Amino acid sequence: MTAPQPAVVVLAGGHESGGGRDLAALVQGEPAGHAPVVLAAAAAGRPLAEAVRSALAAGDAPVCVVPMTLGRDPKLVADTARALRWLATGEGRGRLALTAPFGAAEHLIGWLRAAAASAGNGDAVLVTAPAAGPFEDAELFRIARLVRQYGRHRLVEVALAGGDPSPAEGAERCRLLGAERITAVPASFGPALPAGPLEGVRDGGPLLRPSAIGGVIAARTAAALHLLGHGEDGIRAGLDAEHGHGYAHSHGPGENHHHSHSSNHPHTHTPH
C-alpha cells in the first residue's frame, strides 16, 4: 500500500513577516518523513492564491494554509480566508484548509518574555516590529506593558521600524529613563534591528528558533487536518477574524447589520 502523502503547507505572510519575506528560510525543498512540507510563503492576496493553486496542482496531498501572525494581524487571517474562499469550492474542494493563526497575543507575550530572558536584569528591553496600522501598533504597546508586568525587567519599551517611535528614538527613551544597557527583541519574524546595528543596543536575536516555528506550524496543520476530515475547512471562521478589530461601531434604529457567529461550525484549536 502506498504511504499517504504528507500535507503541503503554504504560509501566508503579513506585516509581521515582511509580506512573507522573513519566512523564506522555512520553505523546504524535500519532504521529511510524514511531516508537513512547507512549500511556499507568500503575501495574502493574489500571490497567496497563486501559491495555493500551485500547491494543489503539484499532487493529491491536502493543502493547509497557515496565517503567520503572532497575534497582531487579524486582517491577515481575514484576507487569507478571502483568498481561499473560491479555491475551496473548486480545485481545492475537500483538500484545502485554513489553519488557526500561528499565534495569538497571549502567545506573543510569552514568547517575548522568553526572548527577553537573554537580557541582563539591569537591561532595558526594546521590543521592535515593523510599523503597521494604528490599531496593530497600539496592540504592541499593550503587549509590551504586559511583558513588563509579568517579567523581570523594569523597562520594556516599543520601537517601530518605519514608524514612531523609531528604534533610535526608542533606545534614546530607554536611556532617558535611566537604562545603561538595552537589548532589542523582535515582535516579528524578522530581525530585532532590521536597519542594522544601533549604537549601544544589543541584538537579542530572533523571537523564535526555526525549530520552534516548525513545531507550531506542524501543530496548527495537524489540528486543521483533523477538522478537514470532519468537513470543516476553517475558511468561514477566518472570514470573521477582523470582527471587533479597529474602530468601535454602532448601529442605529432600523439599521440591518449582521455578523456571523454560527454555532453550527465550531472551529477549535488547542494552542501549541
Automatic annotation (TrEMBL):
Region described as Disordered: 239-272
Superkingdom classification of source: Bacteria
Compositionally biased region (Basic residues): 258-272
Name of the protein in its database record: Cobalamin biosynthesis protein CbiX
